[in-house]
Write a structure and sequence with these properties.
This protein is of the alpha+beta class and 74 residues long. The protein has a single domain (7-73), classed as Metal Transport, Frataxin, Chain A. The chain has helices spanning 9-18, 53-62, 67-70; strands at 7-8, 21-27, 30-35, 40-44, 50-51.
């Protein structure tokens, strides 16, 4: 497993939107995103906080993506 840089929710949301995900609703600071093929996840967007490594990999798993899929977008 490679060393993953810290990433905040806004940046991750931007990357997922580039890959076809749309924000379907927002509840507080949690953005619910869905792809046209049915993949979905929740991204927390808290100011000045990065997403933890475990949550980051959970979001990627929910979206059926790998680190190498989005590495070039960082």
């Amino acid at each position: 497993m490679t060393n993953v840089p810290t990433i905040d929710g806004k940046r991750l949301l931007k990357i997922l939107r580039k890959r076809g995900f749309e924000v379907i609703r927002i509840e507080g600071s949690h953005h619910f995103v869905r792809h046209a093929d049915g993949r979905s996840t929740v991204i927390p967007i808290h100011s000045n906080e990065s997403i933890g490594k475990g949550l980051f990999y959970k979001i990627l798993k929910d979206c059926e993506l790998t680190w190498s899929d989005i590495e070039s977008d960082l």
